[in-house]
Structure formats: C-alpha cells, structure tokens
Design goal:
The structure is a single chain. By secondary structure, this protein is an alpha+beta fold. The protein contains ten helices and twelve strands. The protein is 37% helix and 18% strand. Helix 1 packs across helix 2. The longest helix has 19 residues.
Length: 350
C-alpha cells in the first residue's frame, strides 16, 4: 500500500452519502450508509467499507437492491422479531434490527431480531457494537453474500464466510469485540489482497485438487478454508441455519453471489441479539470485572518469540484512533475506481 492517500473520516462518509443520494436514496438513509461504511474503514475493515461502494451502486442501478426500502416487522413476540428488509442495503436493515433488539431488551433483558430480504451489511462488528451504548452486550451473525467454502471434505461451494461478532463493554480498557469469519480469511481480505498486488498466505485457500492457492487473482478457482478444519465448517453450517433458514432467507445453494449477479435479489439473512447486563449483574461492577479479565490476559507469561497478548477489539480500538487522527488510507487502485464512479454519478471526487 505504498501508493495511497489518506482521507478524513467525515470526507469519506460524505462522499459515500453523496454517491447514494445521486442514485435516489433519501438524505437520511444516505447519511446513515455513509456513517456505517466509513466506520468500517475507520476500524480497519478495508474490504467492507468504501471498497464495496462501486458494487453497491452497481446493484442499485441494475435493479438488484432498493435505495429506500420498506423495512417492516413481519413477525413479533415480546423478546423476538423478524424483519423483512425490503431488499434494502444491509446496513439500513440491520441498523433497524439492532435498534429493535435494544428496545426489546430494555424490557425483557434479552432480545433476538432476525432479518430476511436484506443485503450485504459490511463488517459484523458494526451491529454487535450498537447495543454497547445502552450497557448491553451485542451479538451479530450473518449469512455471507456469496459461497466460497465447501462442506468439509467436499468441493461444491455451498457455504460462505458466515461471520460472527460479539461485543462486550469494559470500563477503562477498550471494549472486547470479537469479529471473525468462520473461514480462515474473510473473502474481502482476498479481494483487497488482489487490489494491492499482494499474495495470500498458504492456508487461506486451496484449489479443487487440494493444493494451496496463494494468488488472489485466481480466487474464483479456489475454495476458502474453514477455521479449525471441520469445526469451522460446523460453525458456518449452524450460523447459516440460524441467520438464513430460520429467517426464511437464502442459505446453501440458494445464496446469490452479489458480486457476480447485480440484478438478482440476494435475500441475505442476519440476526442480532442484545443482552442487558443489568438483567444479570450490576453494570459498573461487570465492566470493572471485564477490565480485570483484560489485565489478566495481558499479563500472561509469554511463549518465546511472542511480543504480547492481544485481546479481541484491541486492534480495532487502536486502528480507529489512528485513522480518526490521520485519515483513512485509500490505495491508488481503489481511488481510481472511486474517481471513475464519482464522474459517472456527477458528484465531487473523493
């Protein structure tokens, strides 16, 4: 990434919002999309932020995604709800789902909100972190927006990265935020590696003969590997059933590759859970205990050659602080694509 330029977060979010408004999206929806997509880049999830903007715009203009969706509750109980996303951007659908989960959890202590007829929603941490503002723990799971992994031992692409994120608030330390795919690497990392002219480490992908694949430009020929072998496959399967099948969303062979087919409805499924800490413990006491666990982990004796213990969310917090201060790096290749998109939409270049 030597050929790059840094862009301030507010400029990036404004650019994203302008692009969506140029496609007919309302001002409020456009601003929300800009905020969340820029938040992905601020947090270091470069494969899930503005990198995805050209593809989102392509889907909108091809008729594959609604700019101003009618997001509605189609099934509801005291602590649960199922949303129909109206084929809208996943960021808008899952923002609404997280808001509803938090609202319900204030009464019930815990709430689970699923969604169908949604789309790609960016990185998982965005939605797991939303309940933190209300002193709640957040959990988010999604069916990935394209299948890149076979069942363990197979070669048919029937599973996706199917990510999970869990966010737990702390007091003095950074919030603990786990955000992981059920594959060794998220497919967005494969695409950004190709964009930067990098090779992939062995262990990310194999070809259909079982040999390591390290050239990201050949990723269409390969298979993503699950974390932990068959255990990662099992997690991907279970998450797909919970976020996809349970919600009436696509899973398995019904998943539409949103990059390859911009016109088809993806019917992406997700769910978010909000857990009110106060239903189980005193909030301040719990947060201090989380700090204590943080300190215990960080003070662990180290193996030879290990510089230090890192907790989930530590890098996210550090990257966010750095990029808010110094700006978000935009590689030259991505910048060129965004300039072309701006010219096409008739908006100011980034």
């Amino acid at each position: 990434m030597t050929d790059k330029r840094n862009v301030k977060a507010d400029r990036l979010s404004g650019f994203i919002a302008s692009a969506f408004q140029a496609c007919g999206m309302s001002e409020s929806n456009s601003e929300r999309m800009g905020e969340l997509m820029a938040e992905a880049d601020i947090g270091g999830q470069d494969g899930h932020g503005v990198f995805r903007l050209p593809m989102y715009i392509r889907r909108i203009r091809a008729g594959g995604m609604e700019v101003n969706p009618d997001i509605k509750v189609i099934s509801e109980r005291t602590a649960t709800a199922l949303l129909d996303g109206g084929n809208g951007p996943g960021h808008l659908v899952m923002s609404r789902a997280a808001e509803l989960a938090v609202e319900k959890a204030k009464t019930c202590g815990v709430a689970w909100v699923g969604a169908r007829y949604s789309n790609h929603a960016g990185p998982a941490f965005l939605y797991a972190r939303m309940p933190l503002a209300e002193n709640m723990i957040g959990l988010y799971v999604a069916v990935g927006s394209a299948n890149h992994m076979p069942p363990w031992g197979g070669t048919d692409l029937l599973l996706s990265t199917n990510p999970i994120s869990v966010a737990i608030p702390s007091n003095a330390q950074a919030d603990i935020v786990l955000d992981m795919a059920t594959t060794v690497a998220a497919y967005g990392k494969v695409k950004t590696a190709a964009d930067r002219g990098e090779t992939m480490p062995e262990g990310w992908m194999i070809d259909k003969q079982g040999q390591p694949l390290t050239d990201p430009t050949r990723s269409a020929e390969g298979l993503l590997l699950p974390i932990g072998g068959p255990k990662g496959y099992g997690l991907s399967l279970i998450f797909g059933l919970l976020a996809g099948t349970l919600n009436g969303a696509a899973f398995g062979k019904d998943v539409v590759d949103f990059n390859a087919d911009p016109k088809a409805t993806t019917n992406t499924g997700h769910f978010v859970v909000a857990l009110d800490i106060a239903a189980f413990a005193d909030v301040d006491t719990f947060k201090r205990q989380v700090d204590g666990i943080w300190d215990e982990m960080k003070s662990s004796a180290l193996l030879p050659g290990v510089e230090g213990i890192r907790l989930p969310g530590e890098r996210l917090a550090a990257t966010s602080a750095e990029r808010l201060a110094e700006g978000i790096p935009i590689p030259q290749a991505l910048g060129s694509r965004l300039d072309a998109l701006a010219d096409e939409l008739g908006i100011e270049r980034l």
